[in-house]
Design goal:
Elements (H helix, E strand, L loop, with lengths): L3 E5 L5 E5 L6 E5 L3 H13 L3 E5 L2 H8 L6 E4 L8 H10 L8 E5 L4 H10 L3 E4 L4 H12 L14
Parallel strand pairs: 3-4, 3-5, 5-6, 6-7
Antiparallel strand pairs: 1-2
Helix pairs in contact: 2-3
Length: about 160
Amino acid sequence: MGRRRITKGAAGRATLMKAGEHTNAIHDDDDDDDTRETCAAALTALGADVRTARSAATGLGVLGQFSAQVILCDLAMPGEDGYAFILALRRDTSGANIPAAAVSALASAEDRRRALESGFQLHLAKPVAATRLAGAVATLVAPPPAVPPATDDPG
């Protein structure tokens, strides 16, 4: 699947740049309607293909019908929380490697540690500016840095 990358424009405004035929697929899981809709609108305006869900259970269902390249998920949701969502996703072979960011008002050092240990790659404290959100998505979809080949030369 092709990707779109989010990069910083000359004016510091985040923009999506096409790197393939398909749009960047982002799944936004948040129980707060305003937060979910604002996040989705900002990323859609940048050219991303965004699907949303209000709960962990609904989010897992959406992912069964949508091939997400990135997941953004709140931690404090009613019923199953974001921690349960990411643990369930990581147990599912189809979702085990989708990069994910926790986007939450739970912003203590302990919350961040727990989110990263649960399977999120990033933790963003709410409120999150659109440019910071776009930068987080860009970080998550970026290919890993190339590892230089090993050499036998000790010096």
